[in-house]
Write a structure and sequence with these properties.
This protein has 168 residues and is of the alpha+beta class. It folds into two domains: 46 residues, no CATH class; 111 residues, Trna Endonuclease, Chain: A, domain 1, CATH 3.40.1350. 54% of the residues lie in helices and 11% in strands. It is elongated and about 70 Å long. Bound molecules: magnesium ion.
Length: 168
Amino acid sequence: MGAKTFVQKLGVILRWDHIVESAYTTTDEKKVYFRLRRRRAIKQMKQILPTESQEQVAFMQWVDMFFNGNEEFVFAIPNGGLRNVLVAKKMKAEGVKAGVPDLFLTLARGGYHGLFIEMKRIKGGSTSKDQKDKIERLRNCGYKVDICKGFDEAKKSILEYVQMRGDK
Ligand SMILES: [Mg+2]
């Protein structure tokens, strides 16, 4: 951030603070102020929270410990992230599909053929239309699909799944 931008931003904040403290400020102006502050707080929070990728890396470290050498049990399906057009086209031709969940657990439990996990950030992640569509299709095919917000939810999902009785 350049010096000018910083001073400009500081100016805006000071002006807003002055507006809110002023006895002449209307309720509407205060509302706008707090909405902006809230937006800023959310932006800051998003920067602090781990990304989806960081959550997934941490989770896979735990998974590797939990399944202890049985690498075939859980693997990632890399269909997200930014790619250049050529690579994306090639991957699509090779069968990569948009919206397929991030991870797959190959064990059958509780009448399900396997467990898909769609990993999200703790806050701020949303499920896309493609993802909703694929999740519904996979559920119809007899798989369990959990959308997990962060490491803890994903861990809970797997622990509950593997403890279910019956492998079909
Ligand atoms: Mg995801």
